[in-house]
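Record minuted for everyone:
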Amino acid sequence: MGSKSLLFSLIFLIFVSVVYSACTSTPCKCPIGTNQGQYCGSKIGCNPDSVFECNPSGEACEYGFRTTCHNCGDLTCPPPRPPPNCRRGFTKRDPRVICE
């Protein structure tokens, strides 16, 4: 019974270590007093294309490249606007984009 639980624990730990996104140490620092959380590097003076985890003491670790940080400098980007000669559908709920 003990060897089965040990084997299960070992397999579980290997699975978690492969699947879990690691936050690696970085020389980049967050401003002291920053709320605990994830930030695009452009918000804290680090690599603008990467996501960083900050803590209030100023320490940081890096998750790596994120498309939204690269595209708009934030964790989530607003939906793209239609071209200038286009407009949204006839009602607020109409998802179509009509171009003239």
Summary: The radius of gyration is 22 Å.
